[in-house]
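Hey,
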Amino acid sequence: MNDIFERELTKETVFKDRNVISPHHIPDNLPHREKEIEKIMKVLAPSLSNKTSKNLFLYGKTGTGKTSVAKHVLSRLIQVKDKYKVTVDAVHVNCRIQNTKYQVLLKMVEYCYPEQEFIGYPFAHLHDKLIKYIDKTKTNFIVMLDEVDKNGNLDDLLYTLTRINDEVQNGQLILIGITNDVSFKDRLDPRSKSTLCEEEMVFPPYNADELKEIIEQRIKTGFKEDAVSKSAINLAAAMSAQESGDARRALILMQKAGDVADDEESKKVTDNHVKIARESVEEEIVYETIKTLPEHQKILLYGIAQLTSNTGHYEKLDGSIDKKTLMSGQVYERYESLCKSRGKEPKTARWCREYIHDLDMLGLVTTNISGKGVRGNTTLIKLAYPEDKVKKVLEEHFT
């Protein structure tokens, strides 16, 4: 057994620093996001002279650099705060994990008072402690709400946070909301929407040339010299651009390709290593995405996978069959049935439409409005990945 550990630790590798290839690593330079960086800096710049800064909302598909750019700008802001003699605090909150209003405020207060324990205290106490901290320190407190649309108390959360500035005499609270869903504000209560006072930015997907440059930047410090063929870089960039324009996926693909090369004891990453890595990357991304879905979205997705396996098709007026395409009505009926079989109260059809929209935004399904040749006017839904793999992942989480 010890021989296996020793062999793994001493074997040759194509990597110089594998962590650099991770999508979680934020380099000093973010190619093709210069305009977005500049705009965010302009929005936050007033805070360096203790002037009011607007809230900011960043939109774009997964892997378009929203979180990386926001973190990059905030780190630069923290670096220069002493020069301008201002107090700046910044906290990152993942709303898929901190998915209630209470959990978000708890994380913020724990940042403010790291030596104190707040779990179990009522919400009003946390709210009061946050206001007192901002007032006393005169801080420009920036909270980055990543995947903000996944918070279950979104209206109450945004309303509460935006009204804090009405209660502080010194300092301010600034929101940076990050979401994949460009239309998420349409679901907000008018009361919440009216308090935002925000700037908005949309991050476009990367094209193949841009992804190639991003990959090349990471390879310089992440892989050994000449350890990756140019054609392998081109192929990884082309694949990622064609599928989604997702830099995160491109970097994971290169990291996996390096692992495949190491397993084969190859000194160079080739096209074939990228092709082998592609399948495992797809499975990993699907697994990670599905396992973090809220419970009702998991039930809905499971119903879509079941229907796709059993009866998924739609007959057009001309008699042709659109295989593995489902109608929103039949999807909702299956969702209701699955909820009841699990002892859960099903959400309304309106909420079901929102869930389908969320699954579409995550790339787990594709949706289209029925057009010419289709009976009626309905949303047509198609699973984006093989139904057996989707069911397998969900069944692991249901047991």
